[in-house]
Amino acid sequence: VNLSASRTYYFFNGSWRQAGQGSAVKNDDVVLADMFLWVRQNSTASTTLNTCGSLVPGKWKMPLHRQGSGGQDNFVALPRLGAVSLGESGLVESGAFQPSASAGTRLDELLVFDNTVAEQNKSASATYYYWNGAWHKVGAGSTVMDAEQVFKPGSGCILRLGAGTPVVWTNNSVP
Predict the structure, then answer these.
(1) Do the strands 134-137 and 126-131 form a parallel or antiparallel pair, or are they unpaired?
(2) What is the rounded radius of gyration, in angstroms, for the C-alpha atoms of the chain?
(3) Is 99's pLDDT higher than 90?
(4) pTM: predicted TM-score of the whole model, two decimal places
């Protein structure tokens, strides 16, 4: 949990560089479709990030990691054109997300972030868990959150999975 970045890149003097690699130009390093990345801007200037790629029109599967003991963070996003709700996510139905024994004893958690707020090292704006046949939000009591659209285009979240064996998340929704 609370994993740090495996590589850090910065743009300097007209080229991309990697922290710890001296002045080596890294313009040709590839960001694969299944890689998660953060864009950290160390100024107050406003910018726009444009990405290109493809959307998955049908069933989508993603392997998720679990440790034999302890938690494991998985950085994920759904490659869908529209927002997807917790109930449509397929997390529980595919066996990727384990239901909690109680509201206070959560095995798996979904951490989401408010991308309208610009800040570094921010905490999750909401934490969700599955209990008693429905999705719930930490701090929202027994309110059912199945319709909450937490998987939004261009945004990621963290699946903090409890101990167990690796699993595959299958999502069938096509909003």
Answers:
(1) antiparallel
(2) 18
(3) yes
(4) 0.84
